[in-house]
Amino acid sequence: MNPTAAEALLPLLGLVCFLLTTLAIFTVRAALQGRPHTADIEKRGRSFLAKFFQEWWLWLYRPVERTCLRLRIPPDAITVASTVAAAGAAVLMGSGRLSSGGWVYLFGASLDFIDGRVARATGRVSRAGAFLDSTLDRVGELLVFGGLAVAFRDSLALFAALGAAGASLLVSYARARGEALGAGDVVRVGGMQRPERIVVSGLACALSPLADAAFGAGAGRTLVGLAMAGLAVLTAGTAVRRIIAIYRALRPPELAAEARPAFRLADVFRLDPVRKRKVVR
Asked: What is the CATH number of the domain that holds 69?
């Protein structure tokens, strides 16, 4: 590795070391005092993003949360700041600076993770704030996928980015529509929800220079492209699973009771009650 490349990697390596150090400290703390059980995290369904790591990330951002409370920053302002950060990340990604864009996206999305906590702590919970948060979440995510689509406009990864964007919208819409119709907890089924999508896309971009350093120029872009392809497939799977679960939950009970029984080979042949012989139906 030439000196220029090594110098460019130093900030990234320093940030990675910082995160690993804080993770080690949190692990020791959890082993001695027990893992925290934050209500927001406990109510989330099971996914590949373990609740332990979600608790660590929330613990890591606790100083930011306290600063927002001390400065009396409105939760809606935090929500808007998160979207502005996502827009900045999209611009960076679209211009080819994938690593910088990935870190900005992770930082901005983490701000969105604490706006609800600030709202509850200050008594500012409102339906208007919940609506703004959900809407801007979709805006920020689409901006990032748009930036990635621009970055990969000359490669097949473009279709992966567009597929991930479409599938993420479908996952979110199914949940929103299911909640409006009273489908219950099934609206949260599926592993590839918004936090998981942020981690996959943001972290792949943020760490892409390490792939370049290890495997040569272009490996980082390949890593991000593969991450987008995997994200598109897994998110589409989550969308299909959620749609089926919500449809079944909303289906009238009488229709479920009248559903045709499963096909059995034994039903093809039966004894004729008059002639007492087998007939083919």
From this structure: 1.20.120.1760
Whether the model clears a pTM of 0.90, i.e. scores above it, the answer is no
Q: Identity (one letter) of the amino acid at 236?
A: A
Distance between CA atoms of residues 186 and 108, nearest Å: 28
238 within domain boundaries: yes
- d(CA 86, CA 109) in angstroms, rounded, equals 7
- Is residue 84 situated within a structural domain? yes
Domain total of the chain = 1
Question: Does 18 map to a domain?
Answer: no
User: For residue 111, what are the domain limits?
Assistant: 29-280
Query: Within a domain: residue 250?
Result: yes
Distance CA 108, CA 98 (A): 15
Q: What is the DSSP letter of 212?
A: H
Q: Write out the DSSP string of 119-165.
A: HHHTT---HHHHHHHHHHHHHHHHHHHHHHHHHTTTSTHHHHHHHHH
Residue 257 to residue 249: CA distance in whole angstroms: 13
48: Cβ contacts below 8 Å, ≥ 6 apart: 191, 196
pLDDT band at 167 (very low <50, low <70, confident <90, very high): very high
Angle at 28 (CA atoms; ends 26, 34), nearest 5 degrees: 85
| The predicted structure's pLDDT at residue 115 | 85
Say yes or no to pLDDT of 165 above 70: yes
State residue 4's pLDDT score. Answer: 41
Q: Are 221 and 208 in contact (CB under 8 A)?
A: yes
Q: b/e per residue, 19-50, with b = 16+ CB within 10 A? A: eeeebeebeeeeeeeeebeeeebeeeeebebe
CA distances, 233 to each of 168, 209, 238, 259 (Å) = 11, 25, 9, 31
